[in-house]
Amino acid sequence: MIKMLSGNEAVARGMWEAGVAVASAYPGTPSTEILENYALFPTVYAEWASNEKVAVDVAVGAAYAGHRGMAVMKHVGLNVAADSFMYVSMTGLEAGLVIVTADDPAMHSSQNEQDNRTFAKFGRLPCLEPSDSQEAKDMVLTAFELSERFDTPVLLRLTTRICHSTSSVELGERIAPSAEPKPFPRNPAKYVMVPGNAVKRHPVIEQRIHDIAAFAETFPCNRLEPGGRSLGIITCGVAFQYAREVFPQASILRLGMTWPLPEKLIRKFAKSVKRLIVIEELDPFIEEAVHLMGIVVEGKSIFPITGEFDPRVVRESAIRSGLLPESAHIPLPDLETGPLPGRPPVLCPGCPHRPTFYILNKLNVPVNGDIGCYTLALIPPLSAIHTCGCMGAGIGVAHGAAKAGSPEHHVAVIGDSTFFHSGIPALVNVVYNHSPVTTVILDNRITGMTGHQDNPGTGRTLLRKKTVRIELEPLVRSLGVQHVRIVPGFDVKAIEKALKEYVKLDEPAVLIVEEPCTLLPDVRKRWVPLDVLADKCNGCTLCFRIGCPAILKSEELDEKTQRPKAQIDTGMCTGCEVCAQICPRKAITFRPADMEGGGS
Amino acid sequence: MKETINFLLCGVGGQGTILASDVLVNVGLAAGYQAKQAEVHGMSQRGGSVTSHVRWGKVVYSPLIGAGEVDVLLAFEKLEALRNLNFMHPETLALINSHTIKPLTVISGDQTYPSDETLSKAFARVTSQVEYINGEEIARSLGNLRVENVVLLGALSALLERSVLSGQELMVETWLKVITERVPPKHIKLNRKAFQAGREAVQKR
Fold this sequence. Notes:
The complex is a heterodimer. By secondary structure, chain A is α/β, with parallel strands linked by helices. Chain A has 4 domains: 2-180 and 187-215, Thiamin diphosphate (ThDP)-binding fold, Pyr/PP domains (Rossmann fold, 3-Layer(aba) Sandwich); 223-328, Rossmann fold; 354-523, Thiamin diphosphate (ThDP)-binding fold, Pyr/PP domains (Rossmann fold, 3-Layer(aba) Sandwich); 526-600, 2-Layer Sandwich (Alpha-Beta Plaits). Helices cover 34% and strands 16% of the residues of chain A. In chain A, strand 14, helix 16 and strand 15 form a beta-alpha-beta unit. In chain A, helix 15 (354-363) packs across helix 19. By secondary structure, chain B is of the alpha/beta class. Chain B has one domain: Pyruvate-ferredoxin Oxidoreductase, domain 3. In chain B, strands 2-3-1-4-5-6 form a 6-stranded mixed beta sheet, sandwiched between helices. In chain B, helix 2 (78-83) links the parallel strand 4 and strand 5. The longest helix of chain B has 16 residues, at 188-203. At the A-B interface, strand 8, helix 11, helix 14 and strand 19 of A face helix 1, strand 2, helix 2, strand 5 and helix 3 of B. Strand 8 of chain A pairs antiparallel with strand 2 (34-40) of chain B.
């Protein structure tokens, strides 16, 4: 049967066919839909882990126990999981272990565009790279076979363009996992990495990567597509598609395994063509390895090292370097539009994070932010995020700045899911080493930015089962924080009062701002649009400062001030009442008294 | 059969461009093409710009379309139409939904939303095949703003028949089958009506 599947759906299908016993992941674009789709298959076990390191350990546990394990994450998640990634390379396993990394060239939704193929080289393990959905599915099965054959974890590297592109896939049969109970191994020499054992394992994994390189010479996913002799292209991943499209006549060596490399095959290919180039996104990973073989090759001198490719990028780069004639150029239209207003993603109308940032902006304190929807509060007019590097960084950065004598009171802002992911150890550090950092936990009871995944605070698992809901307040108090308060997310006055108090303290404090995400189905049911009383509005513009997309400047000017009066887009307004609370002239209506929700 | 047809769909997160491109790629497949689709929707739920590439062809390699190579533009919003102008060429067929969604940079910032005149002049300079439709109004008249995307698909289906795909059989029923497979059963009737309303809106001209 043939189905149109995105790369992520195809990987999920591959996991089903491969009979994965345990799959664990932390959501992150562009990888999120892999586990979401996998969890829809019957009788599977899949979970959202609290972070990527935990996800890898969970998959390792399954593989040690003799059942196929899989961990899925976005590229920067592998930084979090790196420690586990490295030890499991040393130990090997009893059944297959595959780790998926979804890299993000062009940084569509990431803080960097690191190329995780380097991790495979670093960890002495193989890296597979599909170039469409069909290969994405098939390579999951191949990865497990490799893993079990060579006693190695396998890195399956996707990119945004593979994850989020749809193409047809021929489905296969499922290899049902064996139900037979397997005794957990007692093999400390292999599985206990104390120095005495690790010293003996290191030569084993060096030999292993050597053996896999020999296997790569005839590995069917490394495919030669012979063409003309004047140009030879080594390529991988989605870049193969651009290479094939732009250079229909060239000979192409497409590498499905980008680490380790098949040296003999590459040498033979290099000899068969006059000019050898590598077309690969991001790092000159293959190019450098081919250089080290002593082969003359070009790559990053022609194609960009940053961003995502497309046929145009490849074609124009090739024209500039003389690989293609000027006549191959595709002209662009003559544009005279000038700069257009940007449309950056913004906090949604009715977002419960908005009041906190409105107040933080008013207090003008340095805010050390984190990864989530709330990072969008960096955009004017809220402009209240001053640093954001990676998951869980904000609290530690605030603490370090305070210890360095930063003259202002630092506020760290973090979401519920991110706090569970990596905020807890940082808060422990604030308490242990004592700094006057105020941590605001924005608890919207969901993982928002990636599209509403459950987390340890929601009381539900990925498989839709009810579970313990981990409460933030007792957790934070148990860490030894003395000043802890919970405020409702839409209560502007309560948030202001608490923050004003906390920023004067000389001690750690935690403010938990509670209100579910406005896009959750149950919350949507309570949406009621508000209205502006035009006769009361004098165009003071204060309501524009909360940065709500539902508040518009109307055509009508106030007679005295000659400034535009406010207007509410009733199609967008959810009735959160934040604007109504801050309007000094009571010109914005509140919700009808019988409607629940909103502020007070 | 044309060698390849490159479609670009653009709009604002929440407008239903993803469903529309899913329909389009599957209609291509049903019509006997190889088809691929690529979405850029990292943070679309937060009201950002969204684009989706759909390609039909005898053989399709790249899921992405390069600038200057789009044959058919389906713009769900006017500012987003302008933003993607550089993808067009002189023979591009452009269907523009005259729907305005002001970004925050216009609402509370100092930037101005381009006028209709700016839009039509800019497009006229690039291609002569520009069609406008008020999908929002048609959807409202059908009683549900969320079918705006299907109205646009209906209009697109009619325009394709008389230009890019002229002389080629692509039955209305093929479109409707793909659409109805993708909407909740209770909304099938409404979506069929929306598709027909979109077709009629451009056929009248």
